[in-house]
């Protein structure tokens, strides 16, 4: 007995709460007289897995989470004791299933995944069962208009006192980082405005800003553990120098790559967060001065507007210029290779 199965859905991607219209086409090359049942299973699940150590000392960490499991019987029933007979040839069945409203988006990572599948199971008496599986995509949209903090301007000032043998090398280096808001959409340009006041005696070689994605995986067995992947998505580099006792302003745009947003709010074993990593490259053998700015990446509610230069006191004792002046006098940034 040979069976062919073709599973088709009306869409390739769904939002939580949408209804899946599924067509199942079964093609039997000969009559089948003892079919117990044929079921269509809709399932959503996530899993994580990684190994630490090697050989006898290795430990594999895992976790699983199930969001739904629903069966629809298109021939027979789960507990039916009667055998069903199907003629040779093609048989078509239509099945509908409404997704739950609280689901995470589909995701595939190095140490875990979130998958949604449709499986057709043909249970034939006194014969091997046949299974056919296809995946479909779920996208849980992130609406930035529903996240008030994503619409607020960002102004962060960080400073660093450079020393050698505990002796200060001039005054502090101060960097003020400004965004018009902290929520951005896929393929949107992030407008960035910086003021760098170098009161130190250390030469500043340049500034890099990287959009990074942190993926955190959690395990439950054999005990709780955490695994993280930190991925660089895009980079903006200000290829300029800042001499000793000098203040400069910079403006630039960093592009959010397509398909960056991924809503895993309803998944407890995989989380994703985004941030801007601001790195000042220093001369000599000194480590870079680095700090992070959290941002939210969404699908809906894209906002637009010029970068805002927030008031702050400059390191030279003067306030920063207006946005218009900063734009005229600033040095543009150029994208850097990742």
From TrEMBL:
Domain of life, source organism: Eukaryota
Keyword set includes Zinc: no
This protein's name: CSON013891 protein
Keyword annotations of the record: Sensory transduction
Annotated family: Belongs to the arrestin family.
Encoding gene, per UniProt annotation: CSON013891
InterPro entries in alphabetical order: Arrestin-like_C, Arrestin-like_N, Arrestin_C-like, Arrestin_domain-protein, Ig_E-set
Residue span(s) of domain Arrestin C-terminal-like: 3-132, 169-302
GO CC, alphabetical: cytoplasm
Biological processes annotated in GO: protein transport
Pfam family, one: Arrestin_C
Transcription keyword on record: no
């Amino acid at each position: 007995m040979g069976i062919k199965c073709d599973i088709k859905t009306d869409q390739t991607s769904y939002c939580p709460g949408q209804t899946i219209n599924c067509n199942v086409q079964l093609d039997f090359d000969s009559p089948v007289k003892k079919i117990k049942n044929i079921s269509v299973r809709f399932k959503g699940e996530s899993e994580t897995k990684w190994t630490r150590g090697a050989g006898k000392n290795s430990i594999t960490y895992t976790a699983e989470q199930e969001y739904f499991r629903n069966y629809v019987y298109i021939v027979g029933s789960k507990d039916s004791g009667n055998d069903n007979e199907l003629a040779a040839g093609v048989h078509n069945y239509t099945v509908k299933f409404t997704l739950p409203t609280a689901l995470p988006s589909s995701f595939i990572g190095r140490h875990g995944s979130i998958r949604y599948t449709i499986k057709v199971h043909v249970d034939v008496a006194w014969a091997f069962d046949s299974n056919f599986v296809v995946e479909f995509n779920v996208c849980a949209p992130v609406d930035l208009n529903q996240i008030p903090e994503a619409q607020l301007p960002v102004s962060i000032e960080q400073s660093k006192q450079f020393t050698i043998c505990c002796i200060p090398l001039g005054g502090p280096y101060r960097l003020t980082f400004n965004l018009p808001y902290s929520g951005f959409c896929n393929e949107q340009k992030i407008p960035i405005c910086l003021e760098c006041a170098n009161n130190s005696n250390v030469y500043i070689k340049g500034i890099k800003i990287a959009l990074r994605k942190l993926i955190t995986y959690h395990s439950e067995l054999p005990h709780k553990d955490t695994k993280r992947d930190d991925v660089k998505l895009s980079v903006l580099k200000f290829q300029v120098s800042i001499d000793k006792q000098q203040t400069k302003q910079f403006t630039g745009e960093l592009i959010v790559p397509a398909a960056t947003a991924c809503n895993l709010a309803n998944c407890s074993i995989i989380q994703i967060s985004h941030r801007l990593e601001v790195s000042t490259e220093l001369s000599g053998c000194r480590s870079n001065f680095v700090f992070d700015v959290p941002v939210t990446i969404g699908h809906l509610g894209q906002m637009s507007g010029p970068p805002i230069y927030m008031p702050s006191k400059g390191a030279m004792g003067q306030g920063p210029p207006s946005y218009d002046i900063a734009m005229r006098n600033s040095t543009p940034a150029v994208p850097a290779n990742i």
